[in-house]
């Protein structure tokens, strides 16, 4: 599908992070409004309309694009809030809107033809038929791929569809199919689809016990740590549970995604854009990761070999364990 | 909670600014500086939303006193308090003073510090997150918060930020050494 | 014709063809259910096992006067899985769509949208109704009030609410039954067959929490929402869905039929359900706009 240079798409949770990502070499940044219209609706994060307009000006002045995520599912009787978010994004000069809900996609397709539509990973479109449906119905130009496909499957998919694909390469990893997971609302009443939050912070507690610390979500124990042991955020699908007589990280070990070693493979598979997760991360982190991936992508574009790419990305482990996720078939 | 004796020593300028007793001037000074920050950057406090009225207990474990902060823009209040006042607050944040200061200007990543337990947090997690994200966007330098200007501001920034570099190297070492094979 | 119709949703679990035949024979003969969903929804790898059983099951159900709906896969991936969806979509019977993959081949013909399809508001419901949706069963995390608001805005379609069974909470590309047995999905040995109601997942403090079923995660607790019939009809919700388990589903169906007809009050219905051999405790939080694991104290 693609023959040009791969685009590096980077997270921006705040205006300061947007500027940091642009200056570190992002081809595009993605961000959202400070409300439940986007899937990273965390306290203190995200943009007002005014901040977005300034951010777009800054990005455009530096040759970067801004993609606005309006990727939760509109609440019944409140669809106007989501439509208005799309209108504001369009007015601010956003290059694209990233959406998942049919209601939002339909609104943008009908009212903002000049704005590109990207299909959010929250729509979980993984087949030529599903992607074709969104392309025909709403004219989407790009699909953000669900994190369940292997490289081989992505290559086959790209041969079968007419739109660009964007693949996650780094950051937090959803184990469940995005947009179709209600674990969070089951425990807490709030979910990514409804409220733009997963395992919301106001339901989190770290409880000190005689010889350990328990991380709980809404009273459910998600993990337990020895004194001094690094703790984790109690995201449901990364917890330690008992099942079938075993105690284990049943759904996923506490790992993050690093497909840095697969950039060349993703390019060969026809992927147009590479996405870094982490709108909740700070600008120090974003700067460092974007800078490294900028170098890595440039090296791949210039035909650099795997050893060189590994060397560039060697510092990006930030102390946590990493996985190539579903890109490698064994993950399943 | 393991802290060890590996913290860098407080640089002179910090010791000068935070005398090791519950000095009276510090509370009002910080209150004033937070309120004047609100005057200069009102949008900053919008980011906190409902958590503007939360009471944050900030406990630099290597100092003899702690702070409570209610970051309610021009109604902000900072008090210098004893270590025992944690119970009345909505959020408790504990860590070495340099590390806490480093969070201000985004030198160090709050998540990384928390998960590696260099700082510890209890209470309303949402309020902590809101504060952390607000500070992250504010791009403050230590002198901004102290309301300092001119030569003194530059001196403070140089002193504190210099010390922060040391802290950052330590934090890096700490987290890298814990990284198992991918 | 009663004001509130009963649907039996598809079996989520890997039941053997014999178990499926026995189960549906009894449903056909004894259960006061109007509409029955058949077919594999969770895992395409299970299809070769059950495929041979469906024709007889469908024939049996239709002979007993049940309306049969063909349910389709919720997370199709392989060419074979995609083809099976396209094939089912050509059927003259009603088809349940659980993934957008099925939409192009079913548009223009009547279909049901299942709880795996993200229909959260009246605008997306209307869009799907224009393409053929006649019954909409929204995601389980939506409250009765939200489903009712959609029903009120879209009177041209029938809205259905998930009232009974372990709640379908998530799907993954990864198979947890395989993972827990140290296997990969591609060579899974079908260990999910050992757990006909799913495998319980407890927290470190032994709180009952979730259930795994191959690539699917469900609640450990059993949804047992028992609304007074007027709570449904006043909101325009005209259909309720029961999800199959190994407990006595005929008794479950009879209880809900009596509840829907006003012959049993919600409290009594809930009591009868609690006396059955259910795999978990009873909850109904989602229906009330609360966390799904909670149970209304009033009932």
UniProtKB/TrEMBL annotation, chain A:
<keyword id="KW-0004">4Fe-4S</keyword>
<dbReference type="InterPro" id="IPR043692">
    <property type="entry name" value="UbiU"/>
</dbReference>
<comment type="similarity">
    <text>Belongs to the peptidase U32 family. UbiU subfamily.</text>
</comment>
<dbReference type="GO" id="GO:0008233">
    <property type="term" value="F:peptidase activity"/>
</dbReference>
<feature type="binding site">
    <location>
        <position position="237"/>
    </location>
    <ligand>
        <name>[4Fe-4S] cluster</name>
    </ligand>
</feature>
<keyword id="KW-0411">Iron-sulfur</keyword>
<dbReference type="Pfam" id="PF01136">
    <property type="entry name" value="Peptidase_U32"/>
</dbReference>
<dbReference type="InterPro" id="IPR001539">
    <property type="entry name" value="Peptidase_U32"/>
</dbReference>
<dbReference type="GO" id="GO:0051539">
    <property type="term" value="F:4 iron, 4 sulfur cluster binding"/>
</dbReference>
<dbReference type="GO" id="GO:0006508">
    <property type="term" value="P:proteolysis"/>
</dbReference>
<keyword id="KW-0479">Metal-binding</keyword>
<keyword id="KW-0378">Hydrolase</keyword>
<comment type="pathway">
    <text>Cofactor biosynthesis; ubiquinone biosynthesis.</text>
</comment>
<keyword id="KW-0831">Ubiquinone biosynthesis</keyword>
<feature type="binding site">
    <location>
        <position position="181"/>
    </location>
    <ligand>
        <name>[4Fe-4S] cluster</name>
    </ligand>
</feature>
From TrEMBL, chain B:
<dbReference type="InterPro" id="IPR003033">
    <property type="entry name" value="SCP2_sterol-bd_dom"/>
</dbReference>
<keyword id="KW-1133">Transmembrane helix</keyword>
<feature type="domain" description="SCP2">
    <location>
        <begin position="66"/>
        <end position="135"/>
    </location>
</feature>
<dbReference type="InterPro" id="IPR036527">
    <property type="entry name" value="SCP2_sterol-bd_dom_sf"/>
</dbReference>
<keyword id="KW-0812">Transmembrane</keyword>
<feature type="transmembrane region" description="Helical">
    <location>
        <begin position="16"/>
        <end position="38"/>
    </location>
</feature>
<keyword id="KW-0472">Membrane</keyword>
<protein>
    <recommendedName>
        <fullName>SCP2 domain-containing protein</fullName>
    </recommendedName>
</protein>
<dbReference type="Pfam" id="PF02036">
    <property type="entry name" value="SCP2"/>
</dbReference>
Automatic annotation (TrEMBL), chain C:
<dbReference type="InterPro" id="IPR051454">
    <property type="entry name" value="RNA/ubiquinone_mod_enzymes"/>
</dbReference>
<dbReference type="Pfam" id="PF01136">
    <property type="entry name" value="Peptidase_U32"/>
</dbReference>
<feature type="binding site">
    <location>
        <position position="43"/>
    </location>
    <ligand>
        <name>[4Fe-4S] cluster</name>
    </ligand>
</feature>
<feature type="binding site">
    <location>
        <position position="175"/>
    </location>
    <ligand>
        <name>[4Fe-4S] cluster</name>
    </ligand>
</feature>
<dbReference type="GO" id="GO:0051539">
    <property type="term" value="F:4 iron, 4 sulfur cluster binding"/>
</dbReference>
<keyword id="KW-0831">Ubiquinone biosynthesis</keyword>
<feature type="binding site">
    <location>
        <position position="188"/>
    </location>
    <ligand>
        <name>[4Fe-4S] cluster</name>
    </ligand>
</feature>
<keyword id="KW-0004">4Fe-4S</keyword>
<comment type="similarity">
    <text>Belongs to the peptidase U32 family. UbiV subfamily.</text>
</comment>
<keyword id="KW-0479">Metal-binding</keyword>
<protein>
    <recommendedName>
        <fullName>Ubiquinone biosynthesis protein UbiV</fullName>
    </recommendedName>
</protein>
<comment type="subunit">
    <text>Forms a heterodimer with UbiU.</text>
</comment>
<keyword id="KW-0411">Iron-sulfur</keyword>
<dbReference type="GO" id="GO:0046872">
    <property type="term" value="F:metal ion binding"/>
</dbReference>
<keyword id="KW-0408">Iron</keyword>
């Amino acid at each position: 599908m693609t023959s040009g240079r791969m685009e590096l798409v980077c997270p921006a949770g705040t205006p300061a992070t947007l500027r940091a990502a642009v200056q570190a070499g992002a081809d595009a940044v993605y961000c959202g409004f400070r409300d439940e219209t986007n899937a990273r609706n965390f306290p203190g994060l995200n943009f007002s309309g005014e901040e977005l307009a300034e951010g777009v000006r800054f990005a455009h002045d530096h040759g970067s694009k801004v993609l606005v995520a309006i990727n939760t599912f509109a609440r019944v009787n409140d669809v106007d809030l989501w439509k208005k978010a799309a209108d504001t994004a369009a007015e601010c000069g956003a290059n694209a809107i990233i959406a998942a809900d049919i209601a939002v996609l339909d609104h943008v397709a009908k009212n903002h033809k000049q704005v590109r539509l990207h299909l959010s990973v929250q729509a979980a479109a993984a087949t030529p038929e599903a992607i074709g449906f969104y392309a025909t119905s709403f004219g989407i130009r790009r699909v953000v791929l669900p994190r369940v496909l292997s490289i081989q499957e992505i290559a086959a998919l790209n041969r079968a569809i007419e739109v660009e694909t964007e693949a996650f390469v780094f950051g937090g990893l959803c184990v469940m199919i995005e947009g179709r997971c209600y674990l969070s609302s089951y425990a807490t009443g709030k979910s990514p689809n409804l409220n733009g939050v997963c395992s919301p912070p106001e339901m989190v507690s770290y409880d000190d016990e005689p010889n350990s610390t328990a991380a709980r979500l809404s009273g459910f124990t998600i993990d337990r740590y020895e004194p001094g042991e690094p703790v984790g955020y109690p995201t449901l699908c990364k917890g330690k549970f008992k099942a079938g007589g075993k105690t284990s990280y049943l759904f996923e070990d506490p790992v993050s995604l690093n497909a840095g070693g697969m950039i060349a493979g993703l390019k060969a598979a026809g992927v147009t854009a590479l996405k870094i997760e982490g709108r909740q991360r700070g600008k120090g982190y974003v700067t460092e990761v974007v800078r490294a991936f900028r170098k890595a992508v440039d090296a791949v574009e210039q035909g650099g070999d795997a050893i060189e790419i590994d060397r560039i990305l060697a510092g990006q482990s930030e102390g946590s364990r990493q996985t190539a996720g579903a890109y490698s078939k064994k993950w399943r | 909670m393991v802290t060890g004796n590996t913290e860098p020593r407080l640089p002179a300028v910090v010791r000068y600014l935070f005398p090791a007793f519950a000095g009276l001037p510090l509370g009002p000074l910080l209150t004033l500086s937070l309120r004047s920050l609100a005057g200069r950057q009102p949008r900053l406090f919008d980011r906190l939303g409902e958590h503007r009225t939360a009471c944050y207990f900030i406990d630099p474990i290597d100092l003899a006193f702690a702070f409570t902060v209610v970051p309610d823009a021009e109604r902000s209040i900072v008090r210098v308090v004893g270590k025992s006042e944690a119970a009345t607050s909505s959020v408790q944040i504990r860590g070495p003073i340099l590390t806490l200061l480093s969070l201000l200007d985004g030198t160090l990543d709050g998540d990384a510090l928390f998960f590696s337990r260099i700082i510890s947090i209890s209470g309303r997690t949402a309020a902590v997150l809101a504060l952390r994200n607000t500070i992250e966007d504010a791009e403050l330098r230590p002198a901004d918060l102290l309301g300092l200007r001119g030569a003194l501001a530059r001196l403070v920034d140089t002193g504190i930020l210099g010390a922060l570099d040391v802290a950052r190297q330590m934090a890096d070492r700490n987290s890298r050494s814990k990284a198992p094979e991918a | 014709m009663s004001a509130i119709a009963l649907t039996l949703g598809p079996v989520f679990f890997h039941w053997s063809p014999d178990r499926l035949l026995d189960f549906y024979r009894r449903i056909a003969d004894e259960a006061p259910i109007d509409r029955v969903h058949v077919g594999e929804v969770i895992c395409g790898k299970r299809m070769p096992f059950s495929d041979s059983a469906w024709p007889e099951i469908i024939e049996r159900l239709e002979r007993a006067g049940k309306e049969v709906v063909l349910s389709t896969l919720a997370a199709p991936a392989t060419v074979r899985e995609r083809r099976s969806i396209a094939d089912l979509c050509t059927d003259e019977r009603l088809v349940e769509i659980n993934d957008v993959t099925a939409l192009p081949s079913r548009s223009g013909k009547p279909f049901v949208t299942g709880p795996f399809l993200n229909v959260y508001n009246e605008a997306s419901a209307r869009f799907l109704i224009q393409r053929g949706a006649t019954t909409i069963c929204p995601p389980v995390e939506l409250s009765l009030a939200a489903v009712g608001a959609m029903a009120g805005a879209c009177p041209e379609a029938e809205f259905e609410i998930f009232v009974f069974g372990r709640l379908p909470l998530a799907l993954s590309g990864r198979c947890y039954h395989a993972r827990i047995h140290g296997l990969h999905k591609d060579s899974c040995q079908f260990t999910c067959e050992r757990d006909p109601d799913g495998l319980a997942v407890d927290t470190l403090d032994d709180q009952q929490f979730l259930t795994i079923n191959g690539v699917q995660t469900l609640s450990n607790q059993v949804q047992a929402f028992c609304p007074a019939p007027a709570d449904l009809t006043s909101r325009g919700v005209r259909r309720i869905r029961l999800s199959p388990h190994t407990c006595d589903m005929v008794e479950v169906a009879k209880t809900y039929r009596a509840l829907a007809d006003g012959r049993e009050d919600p409290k009594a219905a809930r009591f009868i359900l609690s006396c059955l051999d259910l795999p978990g405790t009873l909850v109904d939080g989602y229906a009330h706009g609360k966390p799904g694991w909670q149970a209304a104290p009033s009932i």
